[in-house]
Amino acid sequence: MKELLNFQFSEFSVLTVLFLGILLSLLMGLLRRIILNKITKNKKKQWYQICELAVWILYTAWALHSILGDSLYYQMTILLILIVIVIWVSWFVVRDFIAGLVLKLNDSFQPGQYFKLGEIEGTILSADYLQLNLHQENGIIIKIPYNKISGAIHYKGEAEDQSMQHQFELEIADKYSLQDVRSLVREAVLLSAGARYSREPRVIHKGTEDKKQKYEVTISALSPDYNKLIESNVKEYFE
Known about the structure:
The protein is an alpha+beta fold. The chain has helices at residues 11-38, 42-68, 72-106, 146-149, 178-190, 227-236, and strands at residues 2-4, 7-9, 114-117, 120-127, 131-135, 141-145, 154-156, 165-173, 202-209, 212-220. The relative contact order is 0.08.
């Protein structure tokens, strides 16, 4: 037994807490390797990470209670941990908000603009308080925190004039890959009169029905008068 500031704690409790902490660490490491290798979706991985964090928080609370009991030191320690967690979470929110505020003061993010950051690229859907929402060609929506954009080299194109855009559905046989479809659509558009060559056509896979693949194609023309012509040329490529 030791005495510290008129408070006694058991060496056995400390050793028990350390031993169980090591076992828990080994168990969580094993589960992490097994579970994360089987999880492919980022959202499920995030939920697992949140659950793992919750387990460690509960273990820490139990460990402190085992060592300190119901003493004033236990209450003060728990309060200090809660304060640190609140500050830590708040920092992530505040830094994204401040970074977004600075970026918006220096520039504007408008829906329809092309945006690229490293290997991530897409069309801007919206600019929230904490993040930029991008729509990629494969239909996936990417959310980029502003702190990732601030200070990094990125490219932003001009907003597309909606009147110059034309969107249509393309239904073709189930024998083309997404890459093949994009390549053929691009070729058909480039060979069409009135197409805006500075704007790449966007192809989004919408699903499979009756052994046919459905795609959503968005093209840009010099004038709305060319929209139907370009659409017709694209569809003829897959007949």
